[in-house]
Structure formats: structure tokens, C-alpha cells
């Protein structure tokens, strides 16, 4: 018997006078690293898509399909990473960036020459109530690095997931190959950042962000790496 995705429920949302239904799709098993994204969508998403729908993909899923992952055993933590880790803010009950291995990956992605001033200026910014300065100066999309979270589900306790290099191109390709509009973004309980929106969605990134602002895909252990978005009414 073929394993199938199971539609879940998420609260409807109204944005710009239009109401949208968000339908997360729960997968029965972890999607392997390097799994072809189009094939994954054919298997789990396309059986549930209706005309007019568009699909929201987690950035992590896109990265996994491109094998943009790194095992913790390959990370050699530097003194700089340990120093920066001490100043990282914790969110809720997740350690997230408070692991030096994850900070070390960020250093290697952005370069110490950017991370050091980002840490210094970011620390000064905190004294004046300015948040997020570190990520702006560090750049290189290091804020999108996922994984190495002890509270997360295996294998993401041991694997870091790096951001995909061309999320917009991925959305365009999926719409071209499968005929379904697509968006992808870095979505979690802290915030939502839309990285790609294919033409067929017919909405700008700001509007898409508001439709997905509460992260209907949920966190990783919910096993819902994508959801269908369906417009159900408009004023």
C-alpha cells in the first residue's frame, strides 16, 4: 500500500479582504536527504490540489531536497563561536542558536570578518533596545540555518540544514514542472520570511507573509513540511 499524506486543519485567515484556508499535509515518514522535490510533491501534495490552489513549502524541505545539510561531527567549534554563543537569546523552550556548533556553521558561512562586527554592533544595539542587528550585519542568510536543536526530532538533533541558494528559482521550476503555483519561506514560531513566490500565486511577498504569518506548517515534529493554500471568499 502506498503511503499518503494526510490533510490537517489550520485556522482560516483573512488578508486584504480575502479569506484563505490553509491545509497542512502530514507526511507518514521523514523525507530523505537528496529526495527529488518534484517527485515528493507528486507523491504527497498533488493528489489534494484543486484549481486555484497554491502550495507553501518549508525552506527546510527545499534544502533537504538539495542535500544542503551538514552533520555535527564535521563541525570544529572555535573560541569565537563559544564567545558568541554566550550572548545568544533563547526562545521559549528551544535552545536553537545557543549551541556553539550552530554558531560555528554561521561563522563558516558568513566569514569571521562579518560575524565579529555583527556580534559587537549587535551587542551594542541590544543595550539600546535594537534587536536583530547581528543578523543584518552578518548577512549571507545565516539566520535561516536550521537544525542542531536537541529538542527537535531526529535527525535534526545532529544535522544542520543550510538555506537553499535559489529559493525563487525552485518555486518557478515547481510551477513549470507540476503546474501548481508555489511559495517557500523560512517559517517558524519566531517569524516568517518569504523567500520565493512563483508567478501563478498572483500575490506579492508581503501578502503571502500575512497569509502564512502564524506558520500553519508548524514546527518540524509535526511532519507537515508543506501546506495547500486555498482562497475561499473575498469581499
Portion in helices: 25-40%
Question: Architecture of the largest domain in CATH?
Answer: 2-Layer Sandwich
Strand content: 15-25%
Question: What overall form do the CA principal axes indicate?
Answer: globular
CATH topology tier name of the largest domain: 60s Ribosomal Protein L30, Chain: A
Number of helices: 8
Helices and strands: which structural class?
Answer: alpha+beta
Q: How many discrete domains?
A: 2
Q: Are there runs of 5+ residues with pLDDT below 50, and where?
A: none
Give me the Rg, rounded: 18 Å
Count of DSSP E strands? 10
Largest sheet: 7 strands, mixed
State the order of secondary-structure elements, H for helix, E for strand. EEEHEHEHHHHEEHEEHE
* N-end to C-end Cα span: 44 Å
What does this structure look like?
- The model has no long low-confidence stretch (mean pLDDT 89).
- A hairpin with a 4-residue loop joins β8 and β9.
- The chain is 31% helix and 20% strand.
- The protein has 2 domains: 6-68 and 164-234, 60s Ribosomal Protein L30, Chain: A; 70-161, no CATH class.
- The longest helix is centred in the middle third of the chain and has 16 residues, at 112-127.
- α3 (79-85) packs across α4 (100-110) and α4 packs across α5.
- The strands form 2 sheets. Strands 1, 2, 3, 4, 8, 9 and 10 form a 7-stranded mixed sheet that branches. Strands 5-7-6 form a 3-stranded antiparallel sheet, covered by helices on one side.
- By secondary structure, the chain is an alpha+beta fold.
Amino acid at each position: 500500500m502506498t503511503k499518503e499524506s494526510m490533510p490537517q486543519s489550520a485556522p482560516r485567515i483573512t488578508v486584504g479582504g480575502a479569506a484563505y484556508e490553509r491545509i497542512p499535509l502530514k507526511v507518514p515518514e521523514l523525507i530523505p536527504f537528496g529526495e527529488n522535490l518534484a517527485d515528493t510533491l507528486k507523491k504527497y501534495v498533488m493528489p489534494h490540489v484543486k484549481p486555484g490552489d497554491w502550495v507553501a513549502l518549508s525552506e527546510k524541505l527545499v534544502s533537504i531536497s538539495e542535500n544542503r545539510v551538514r552533520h555535527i561531527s564535521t563541525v570544529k567549534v572555535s573560541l569565537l563561536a563559544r564567545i558568541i554563543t554566550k550572548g545568544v537569546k533563547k526562545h521559549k523552550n528551544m535552545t536553537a542558536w545557543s549551541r556553539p556548533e550552530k554558531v560555528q556553521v554561521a561563522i563558516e558561512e558568513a566569514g569571521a570578518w562579518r560575524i565579529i562586527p555583527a556580534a559587537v554592533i549587535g551587542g551594542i544595539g541590544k543595550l539600546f533596545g535594537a534587536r536583530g542587528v547581528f543578523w543584518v550585519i552578518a548577512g549571507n542568510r545565516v539566520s535561516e540555518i536550521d537544525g542542531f536543536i536537541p529538542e527537535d526530532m531526529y535527525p535534526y538533533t545532529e544535522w544542520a540544514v543550510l538555506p537553499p541558494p535559489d529559493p525563487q528559482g525552485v518555486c518557478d521550476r515547481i510551477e513549470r514542472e507540476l503546474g501548481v503555483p508555489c511559495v517557500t519561506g523560512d517559517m517558524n514560531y519566531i517569524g516568517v520570511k518569504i523567500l520565493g513566490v512563483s508567478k501563478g500565486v498572483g500575490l506579492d511577498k508581503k501578502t503571502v507573509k500575512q497569509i502564512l504569518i502564524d506558520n500553519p506548517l508548524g514546527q518540524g515534529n509535526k511532519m507537515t513540511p508543506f501546506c495547500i493554500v486555498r482562497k475561499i471568499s473575498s469581499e
